[in-house]
Amino acid sequence: MKVVLYVRVSTAEQAKEGYSIGEQIERLKKYCEAMGWIVVAIFVDPGYSGGDMNRPGLRDMIKTVQDEDIDKVVVYKLDRLSRSQKDTLYLIEDVFLANQTDFVSMNENFDTSSPFGRAMIGILAVFAQLEREQIKERMGMGKEARAKEGKWHGGSTEPIGFDYNPATEELVANDYEIMQIKELAELFLNGTPLRTIETMFEEMGYTHKYGKWDSKTMRRVLRNKIYIKMIKHRDEWYPGNQARVFDDKTFEKINKLLDARAEMYKLSGVKPGAQTTYLGGLILCKHCGGKYAKNSWPQRNGSRTTVYGCYSRMRKMKKMIKDPNCKNKYWKMDELDNLVFDEIRKLAFDPEYFNEVKRYQRDKTAEEPGKIAILEKEIAKVDEQISRFMDLYGIGKFTIDQVSQKVDPLNETRNKLVKELEALNAESGRLTEEEAREIIDSFEDIAETEDFNKIRLMIESLINYIEIDNEDVYIHWKFA
Questions:
Q1: How many other CB atoms sit within 10 Å of the CB of residue 166?
Q2: Residues of the chain with pLDDT > 90: what percent?
Q3: Is 222 helix (H, G, I), strand (E, B) or coil?
Q4: CA dist 103 to 71, 74, 121, 352, Å?
């Protein structure tokens, strides 16, 4: 029977326990001789800790077991192989037994070829699991303690905008990346879609430590509380020691706008910034309330006619159909685009027309209370109902359980209304007259560049939505 010996000792263990590499080898050889086993190789790790498996002798022994026909691996004591039950179990099950090699520990009389030895594998597995759980618990406690001290947990995945300094155990500001993050936030709050910002950043050559920017990374960065000086451990956030990138008010505005755009995508099915037309996603049908989208069909001469059409009439996407009988007009894309462009030019060159549009929309808002006003009124009604039930509890008409049955659904309704109101307020992005005039005055210069993203951004900045009623087009501006 061919066996290999594995011997390990650290300097500290040698002094403390009184057995050297030579003594272990001598005793193991005598043991093998008594058992009638032939020692074909001896692997030695002098001065190496048993806490991990990064040992040259151990590596060579594993390779020999995998490459050659070895019957047994023999050690003096179980902890010579490893001080980790988890690593010991891995070596026995996944290395030795997987290669038809038994394992023997002379001191504990542990031999995997015997029934007792095989039973010991199960016991080792229990202790290995216990060891894993203890390590996990200790690591978790350590990370939580670091988070409570305002320190990042460390590792190789530093957040964009910061670099980890292991000497000080602190996150150090990366000025180049933070500059980009601040620019990202400013563009986003000004109404620029993330996909447009992605294109802009690529043109400017902006990169971060993990590569190029994309809209998914941008969204993750804008959501991360690490930029308002917080540190996360599991689901808890703690005050951090790193530099602050945003103030709380700015961070809240960013996240409300992200929520609003996500809600808009849920309703429309069109991702913000994913447009390929100047007016896509902004046009509504005044007949059925559906969205208008791009459509095209071939002509006899080989060209194609491209139009904006109501989803209900086109019937392209079932979930977007509001009324299958809708007959609202198709508009040729270039005709509607030019109509809107001409309106913007007219606002730029005719101050009186600008004032006229502004007055008209103010009057219209006064006549028809907007969705924001309706939601505010509804929230007030719910608050009144909640207050009434609380009063009945106060005078002893209801028990606390009865009140809860009535009030809990009302609170749930109120929370939904408040969330929708916050999203509308964040999304509305009303412009001051000064801001509107500045954008309008620069329209001609931007149009001449023929840069689709810049023109689209300008239109989104000026227009809330456009309504189509056959031949009539109603533009709802953001500045009125």
A1: 7
A2: 24
A3: helix
A4: 9, 6, 11, 94
The SS3 call for residue 62 is helix
**How does residue 479 score in pLDDT terms, banded at 50, 70 and 90?**
confident
Asked if 327 contacts 313 with a C-beta cutoff of 8 angstroms, the reply is: yes
Q: Please identify which of the residues 10, 49, 268, 428 carries the catalytic annotation.
A: 10
pLDDT at 329: 92
Three-state secondary-structure class, residue 468: strand
Q: Where are the beta strands (DSSP E) in 10-131?
A: 38-46, 72-75, 102-105, 110-111
pLDDT digit string, tens, across residues 419-434: 766 655 554 556 667 7
Confidence at 6, pLDDT banded by 50, 70, 90 = very high
Encoded tokens for 358: 């502004």
Q: State residue 368's pLDDT score.
A: 47
Q: Identify the sign of the CA torsion 32, 35, 39, 45.
A: negative
- Based on the residue annotation, tell me whether 10 is a catalytic residue of this protein: yes
Model pTM greater than 0.70?
no
Residue 237 forms beta bridges with which residues? 232
Range from 103-112, 328-337, 403-412 that averages highest in pLDDT: 328-337
- Contacts from 123-128 at CB under 8 Å and sequence distance 24+? 124/85, 124/88, 124/89, 124/92, 125/89, 127/85, 128/85, 128/86, 128/88, 128/89
- Helix-strand-coil percent breakdown of the chain, rounded to 5? 55, 15, 30
CA distances from residue 40 to 7, 29, 437 in whole angstroms, order as listed? 14, 11, 90
Rounded to 5 degrees, what angle do the CA atoms 86, 89, 94 make? 120
